[in-house]
Amino acid sequence: MGQERAVNTSLATYVILAVGVAVISVILSFFAVRYFVVKREWNPAAAALLAIVIFSALAAGGHLILVVISTVVAEQMRTKR
């Protein structure tokens, strides 16, 4: 019973944080493209490509951190009596 609750809570923690990372990544990507196109007068396609590559790498790193956080949450709930 405790393990099932821990897994469900861990999954919920991961999903909520992952959605947050995705939303933040999209917002930052939009503003980065806008900055490079408007202020730096870059080619829009190059600015979008740069934003996609950088924020995809950051999101992947963020998701790895979220997996660790979710694992810690699950372990803490599983062992807590």
> Based on DSSP secondary structure assignment, what is the total number of beta strands?
0
Spatial shape? rod-shaped
For this entry, what is the oligomeric state of its chains?
single chain
SS field, number of helical segments: 2
Main sheet, how many strands, which sense, barrel?
none
Radius of gyration: 18 Å
What is the element layout, followed by pairings?
Elements: H1 2-38, H2 44-79
Helix pairs in contact: 1-2
Describe this structure in words.
The chain is mainly α. The chain has helices at residues 2-38, 44-79. Helix 1 runs antiparallel to helix 2. The chain is rod-shaped and about 55 Å long. The model has no long low-confidence stretch (mean pLDDT 87).
